[in-house]
Specification:
Elements lengths: L20 H12 L8 E5 L6 H12 L4 E7 L4 H12 L11 E4 L8 E3 L2 H4 L2 H14 L3 E7 L6 H15 L4 E7 L1 H9 L10 E4 L5 H14 L3 E2 L1 H11 L3 H12 L6 E2 L1 H25 L3 H10 L6 E2 H8 L3 H13 L3 E5 L2 E4 L4 H8 L5
Parallel strand pairs: 1-6, 1-7, 2-5, 5-6, 8-9
Antiparallel strand pairs: 3-4, 10-12, 11-12
Helix pairs in contact: 1-2, 3-5, 8-9, 9-10, 9-11, 10-11, 12-13, 13-14
Length: 365
Amino acid sequence: MYQNPFTPVFGNEPPILAGRDKLISDVLTGLDNPPGDPNRITIFTGPRGSGKTVLLAKIVSEAGGRGFIGVLSAAYPGMLDELREQVAEKAAEFLPKKSGVKLKGAQAAGFGVTIEQAAEAQVGWRTQMSRYLDILAKHDIGLLFAIDEVTANVPEMVQLVSTFQFFIMEKRNVALMMAGLPNNVLQMFRHESISFLRRAFRRKLDPLRIPEVRAVMKKTIELSGRTIEDAALKKAAENTSGMPFLIQLIGYHAFNQSDRKKIISADVDAGIESAREDMESMILDATLFDLSETDIRFLIAMTKDEGESRISDIAARMDADAAYVGIYRRRLIEQGVISPVGRGRIAFNMPMLKFLLKERFEEEL
């Protein structure tokens, strides 16, 4: 029985991480250089399934070999405490022992127990991080913060970025890697309190090239001891549209179709169908939920084209003027759903979304 080498789980690093070598190399070069290298503040953007979480996890892992302690969290309430705890745990051998918590009092009936928190937990986040950085600096160790799913709607995210600006001014040995959906990243740039982020390096996670996808899928399959027909491999790669998550998802389902040594086209056909169902529930439903009715009308109008769509045709189908349609064009580009492909032309940016729209809104087409 062959073991399936594909890993269609969010944040799980695949056996072969393709297409991101240059991005990782740039960041690691920034860590090798003294504080002030612009690669030390980088924001990765891309739609769901483009590999943002995996990329951040990889950078955190690689940072250890560059003299950095890396900590990773998503932007949510409580993230600062989570980061504080991660730093304390990973740097435990260099930091003073925690004093822990002490029982302060208890009522006779056993209710109303109160505790006195350690002084470390009572100081502000910036003060505590500064103390950690002072200690780590004595050992020539840097600190890398990696934040996934960034959004200006979480006050602690804004607090982190604001504090990080002071670390930069103080020439601390720090780095900040962030990743998020395109629209959420734009909101971060527009936030007045953290406007300095506009000067951060921005890196868009574009789809992988299909020849590269073919090579990755072939090598991944061969790790298990199996092989795949050339025609089957070509079909599998093309149906991923270069999306990292779909590489894992289609590969996973195609692999599970049989236990023969060679994967054939019938296996890939069945794998693509299963992957389409998973894409719908795991990514596409969430994408559509974030869109307005007019956004969806715009996308439905695009489904009538075989390939690329012209803005003039979209406007005619929506019975709207170019200025009105332009608003929704910009919105959908910012959300990573579509991409401009030339003057006045656009195309779907998310694989299988066009198929789903045709299926769900057949009566409106």
